[in-house]
């Protein structure tokens, strides 16, 4: 991995939704407690069952959170990108990590220990509320996942993912491009699909003229038509 430039930690934390309302004085102890971790592509950050001593923020790169299986397969639970955090919930449970975390590409992280977080929660009720709100949003996302897996077809899951990641254009453009953030194999697991089903759905949608596939770049020629197909 190449040498990583120094990170302006206080400025980075101030841009995160979780810390955006904090004053520089409140951010200072968090920044002082932050420790940088550099991971090479494929490197494991922690295994399922490892003790949790804090939570992580992705500075650059991507982290895969997944459940291993005895058969050697895995279920991707979430893909974490820049300026997203993970591991907060485990802090309050005093339990080990329920998933493993692996770098999908070269990744730079910040780790903030639990003691610094707990001190800020004790001294700032508004931060505690934002932490609860963030955990509630994560729970809502997990419930939405369960709903998608049980009530929506494989094709609807794929279309929903593409629509969710389609860029929002102020000029009302109806033709947009979605860049898949990682390999199709990883995304298939994230959507609870087999790689074969994932590829088949992409092929079927392409044959129907709903999308155009160019490697990881997916062009949606007509957003309105794709949304109508999802109903």
Task: Give a brief outline of the structure.
The protein has 231 residues and is an alpha+beta fold. Helices cover 42% and strands 23% of the residues.
Describe the structure.
The relative contact order is 0.13. The chain has helices spanning 9-15, 24-33, 88-91, 114-123, 125-151, 154-164, 184-190, 195-207, 223-229, and strands at 34-39, 44-46, 54-60, 63-68, 74-80, 85-86, 100-103, 107-113, 176-179, 212-214, 217-220. It folds into 2 domains: 9-151, Jelly Rolls (Sandwich), CATH 2.60.120; 154-229, Arc Repressor Mutant, subunit A (Orthogonal Bundle), CATH 1.10.10.10. The strands form 3 sheets. Strands 1-8-3-6 form a 4-stranded antiparallel sheet. Strands 2-7-4-5 form a 4-stranded antiparallel sheet. It has a 3-stranded antiparallel sheet with strand order 9-11-10, covered by helices on one side. With 231 residues, the chain is α+β, with helices and mostly antiparallel strands. The mean pLDDT is 87. It starts with 8 loop residues before the first helix and ends with a helix.
β-sheet strand percentage: 15-25%
Distance between the termini: 45 Å
CATH topology of the largest domain: Jelly Rolls
Strand order of the largest sheet: 1-8-3-6
Number of helices: 9
CATH class of the largest domain: Mainly Beta
Q: Any low-confidence stretches, pLDDT <50, length ≥5? A: none
Sheet bearing the most strands, described?
4 strands, antiparallel
Q: Write down the domain tally.
A: 2
What is the multimeric organization of the chains shown?
Answer: single chain
Structural class: alpha+beta
Mean pLDDT level: 87
CATH architecture of the largest domain: Sandwich
The count of strands amounts to 11
Choose one word for the global shape: globular
Percent helix, as a range, is: 40-55%
Task: Report the radius of gyration as a whole number of Å.
Answer: 19 Å
So, the CATH homologous superfamily of the largest domain?
Jelly Rolls
Give, in order, the helices and strands: HHEEEEEEHEEHHHEHHEEH
């Amino acid at each position: 991995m190449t040498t990583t430039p120094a990170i302006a930690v206080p400025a980075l934390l101030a841009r995160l939704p979780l810390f955006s309302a904090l004053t520089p004085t409140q951010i200072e102890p968090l920044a002082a407690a932050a420790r940088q971790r550099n991971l090479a592509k494929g490197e494991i950050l922690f295994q399922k069952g490892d003790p949790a001593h804090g939570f992580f923020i992705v500075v650059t790169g991507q982290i895969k959170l997944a459940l291993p299986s005895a058969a050697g397969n895995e279920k991707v639970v979430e893909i974490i990108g820049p300026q997203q955090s993970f591991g907060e919930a485990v802090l309050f449970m005093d339990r080990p990590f329920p998933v493993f975390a692996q770098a999908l590409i070269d990744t730079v992280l910040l780790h903030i220990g639990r003691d610094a977080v707990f001190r800020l929660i004790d001294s700032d009720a508004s931060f505690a509320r934002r932490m609860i709100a963030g955990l509630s949003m994560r729970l809502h996302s997990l419930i939405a996942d369960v709903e998608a897996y049980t009530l929506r077809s494989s094709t609807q899951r794929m279309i929903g993912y593409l629509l969710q990641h389609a860029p929002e254009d102020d000029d009302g453009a109806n033709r947009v491009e979605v860049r898949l953030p990682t390999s199709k194999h990883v995304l298939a697991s994230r959507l609870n699909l087999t790689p074969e089903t994932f590829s088949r759905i992409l092929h079927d949608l392409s044959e129907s003229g709903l999308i155009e596939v160019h490697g990881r770049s997916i062009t949606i020629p007509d957003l309105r038509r794709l949304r109508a197909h999802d109903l």
